[in-house]
Write a structure and sequence with these properties.
about 190 residues; single chain; two-stranded antiparallel ribbon
C-alpha cells in the first residue's frame, strides 16, 4: 500500500494571531502605482489628481497620476507652478477626450517648458552722467573733468596743455544768454 504524501499546507492565521509574527503577510505589491511615501503625494502628483476636480473630461486614476507624475515633476523643476501646469493642461480642450491619460501625457510632452539656464543677473542700463566745466560750462563726462575743469581750462592755468587741434576758448556770451532764454521758456511751459 502506498502511504499518502504529506503536503505543505499552511493554515490561515487565526484572528488573534499577529500576521507579521506568523509569516502570513500578504505579498507586497512591487508594481503598486506609487511607492510608499511618509510625506504624502508630491506637488506634481497632487496637481494631476486635482485635474478631474477642475475639468471632468480629465479625471485621472491613481495609476494614471503615478505614471504621469515624473513628467509633471519635470515641468516643476523647470520653473512651472502647479497653477501654470494646470492652465497648460486645461487650455483649449477638445469637446470629447477619449483617453484622459494619453491626452495629458501628450500635452505634458508637447508643451514642456524649456530648461532655464542659470544666468547671472545683468545690471540695469548704465546711466552716463554729464558734468559741466566749472569755469567755462563745457559739458563732459566726469572722467574728462578732473577737478571740475575741462582740458582747455586746465591748460590755461598752466597745469595742462590743450590737445592738438583743440582750442581753449570760452563760449560766446551771446550763446550763453540765448541758452538761458530757451531754458526759461521751457520751464514756463512745464509749469503751465
Amino acid at each position: 500500500m502506498a502511504t499518502p504524501e504529506k503536503t505543505d499546507v499552511q493554515k490561515p492565521p487565526a484572528a488573534d494571531e499577529d500576521p507579521e509574527a506568523s509569516g502570513h503577510l500578504p505579498p507586497r505589491d512591487t508594481n503598486s502605482p506609487r511607492p510608499d511615501r511618509g510625506s504624502g503625494p508630491s506637488a506634481a502628483y497632487d496637481t494631476l489628481a486635482r485635474l478631474g476636480l477642475q475639468e471632468p473630461r480629465l479625471v485621472l486614476s491613481a495609476v494614471d497620476c503615478a505614471a504621469l507624475e515624473q513628467l509633471a515633476a519635470d515641468w516643476m523643476t523647470r520653473g512651472a507652478s502647479p497653477e501654470h501646469l494646470t492652465h497648460a493642461l486645461l487650455a483649449g480642450l477638445p469637446d470629447r477626450v477619449h483617453s484622459p491619460r494619453a491626452f495629458v501625457q501628450r500635452r505634458l510632452l508637447d508643451k514642456m517648458p524649456p530648461e532655464r539656464a542659470v544666468v547671472p543677473p545683468t545690471p540695469g542700463p548704465r546711466r552716463s552722467l554729464l558734468m559741466e566745466c566749472t569755469d567755462c560750462g563745457v559739458p563732459g563726462r566726469p572722467e574728462a573733468l578732473p577737478g571740475g575743469l575741462c582740458r582747455g581750462c586746465r591748460g590755461r592755468d598752466g597745469s595742462e596743455t590743450g590737445g592738438i587741434g583743440q582750442s581753449a576758448h570760452r563760449p560766446d556770451p551771446t550763446v550763453r544768454a540765448r541758452a538761458a532764454q530757451v531754458r526759461a521758456g521751457i520751464r514756463t511751459l512745464q509749469r503751465a
